[in-house]
Recover the amino acids of this structure.
């Protein structure tokens, strides 16, 4: 099993709150790992520490290691901007850039950083939109404002924008929780396809979703990693009582 | 009297009181505008816009140098004041730690509360004295000092309204914070920022005191940045206190033009604000 991302004794504090407590776990490459747990258990916090999104949160401090391809991304010599290009992120609420067209949104990762030549940009936009199965729906109106799309389309656009910069890992923070069932299904199918090329870590509230899309599942409770393993095993024969209580709906 | 009738009476009384207060706010504005139009309109002609003032007694003459001078001073003050205000606001809203930001914010508020004549004196001490002469440069500097805190605070407020999800979207694409701040955050707030800039321009367009001992005023065209320069408020002031009837007429015409320009700026600012409200 090839480990793509490894957490070693990861702790996150917000001021005096200890949000993530001594988490150590592996995320194998080209798989989907779901992080589940009740609200406030630190699952989003863990996710956001994997591409250093806490750097800009006042009062947040991260200790321990997040090792990506053998390099600790919290090492002094590592540039967080370079890390975020390799480890992309899709957020809970679709957040396309409102002042930009569909086309510009997909190419934003390039355009905001430097100039891109037109032919190259066209190629990136088309292939990214095709990968998220949005191409056929928007190819005739690439110049339209991105906010004209439906919520589900916007979220797929955000995924296209993320994969356009060719990351290795994609972090997803409840990517379907703001969407209707049909859009959710499309996102889930997409995740299934994306894992061929990328390593996906998805935070979800929805246990059926975790069971459907993931290969591995990690259960968090009160900032601690309670149990982590092959999804089928977590959902059928969990080792810990807390995991069983949660997946059977006794709390959370 | 029944309780209900008493309540109705109170209600009517309060409505009248508040309506009256509103009227009191409007009356001075209307009076000023009507008076200026009445006094100034007769003196406005093509000459007013294309000629410099003529010696008293001669017919014709205008405020072309004052208008161009004001435009120039505003442009120069803006190139100095707007970038400093905007970049300062980005620092406060996107980078600053809470302590430093609080201090800067407090200083900006104090700065915007300083009487503008004091600002003029500061520019006099810092630029006019060492350069041994009144100059357009010193005038623009004084105006820029007035502009900076206005642009800074309005821009900061607008940047704070930009939802965090946009910043995060950009950062997660591997865009550095400074680029995110300029190309995503500032750009999203641009209509509001423009409103603030226009209001700051409207404010300095009418400033007279800070120009008194910096730009000084000039009866002729200015050729160098280091020469005194004419400005509309200064010219209006000088002509109004002069003993000559034809100069008084020019002053009224100048006042009309200046008020109209400021009115237009405020309207444009509101229009920008409204456009933001719709989107």
């Amino acid at each position: 099993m090839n480990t793509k991302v490894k957490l070693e004794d990861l702790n996150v504090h917000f001021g005096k709150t200890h949000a993530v407590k001594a988490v150590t776990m592996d995320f194998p490459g080209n798989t989907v790992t779901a992080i589940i747990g009740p609200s406030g258990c630190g699952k989003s916090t863990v996710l956001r520490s994997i591409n250093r999104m806490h750097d800009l949160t006042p009062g947040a401090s991260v200790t321990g290691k997040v090792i990506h391809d053998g390099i600790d991304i919290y090492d002094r010599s590592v540039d967080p901007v370079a890390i975020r290009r390799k480890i992309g992120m899709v957020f809970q609420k679709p957040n396309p850039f409102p002042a930009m067209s569909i086309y510009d949104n997909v190419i934003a990762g390039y355009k905001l950083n430097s100039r891109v030549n037109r032919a190259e940009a066209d190629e990136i936009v088309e292939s990214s939109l095709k990968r998220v199965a949005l191409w056929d729906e928007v190819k005739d109106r690439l110049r339209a404002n991105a906010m004209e799309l439906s919520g589900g389309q916007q979220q797929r656009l955000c995924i296209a924008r993320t994969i356009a910069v060719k990351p290795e890992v994609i972090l997803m923070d409840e990517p379907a929780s703001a969407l209707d069932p049909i859009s959710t299904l499309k996102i889930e199918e997409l995740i299934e396809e994306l894992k061929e090329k990328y390593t996906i870590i998805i935070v979800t509230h929805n246990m059926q979703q975790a069971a459907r899309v993931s290969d591995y599942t990690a259960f968090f409770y009160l900032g601690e990693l309670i149990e982590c393993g092959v999804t089928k095993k977590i959902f059928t024969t969990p080792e810990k009582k807390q995991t069983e209580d949660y997946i059977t709906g006794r709390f959370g | 009297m029944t309780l209900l009738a008493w309540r109705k009476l109170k209600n009517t009384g309060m409505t009248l009181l508040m309506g009256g207060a509103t009227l009191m706010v409007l009356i001075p504005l209307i009076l000023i505008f009507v008076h200026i139009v009445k006094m100034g309109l007769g003196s406005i002609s093509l000459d007013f816009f294309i000629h410099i003032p003529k010696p008293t007694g001669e017919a014709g003459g205008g405020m072309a140098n004052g208008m161009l001078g004001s435009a120039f001073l505003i442009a120069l003050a803006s190139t100095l004041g707007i970038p400093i205000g905007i970049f300062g606001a980005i620092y406060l809203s996107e980078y600053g730690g809470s302590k430093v930001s609080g201090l800067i914010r407090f200083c900006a508020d104090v700065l915007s509360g300083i009487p503008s004549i004091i600002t003029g004196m500061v520019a006099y001490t810092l630029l006019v004295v060492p350069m041994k002469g009144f100059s357009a440069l010193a005038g623009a500097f004084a105006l820029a000092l007035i502009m900076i805190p206005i642009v800074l605070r309005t821009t900061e407020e607008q940047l704070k309204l930009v939802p965090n999800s946009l910043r995060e979207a950009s950062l997660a694409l591997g865009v550095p914070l400074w680029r995110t701040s300029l190309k995503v955050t500032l750009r999203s707030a641009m209509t509001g920022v423009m409103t603030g800039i226009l209001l700051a321009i409207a404010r300095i367009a009418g400033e007279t005191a800070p120009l008194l001992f910096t730009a000084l005023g000039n009866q002729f065209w200015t050729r160098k940045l280091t020469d005194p320069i004419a400005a509309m408020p200064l010219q209006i002031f000088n002509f109004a206190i002069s003993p000559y009837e034809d100069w008084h007429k020019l002053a009224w015409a100048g006042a009309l033009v200046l008020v109209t320009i400021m009115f237009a700026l405020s309207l444009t600012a509101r229009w920008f604000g409204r456009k933001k409200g719709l989107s």
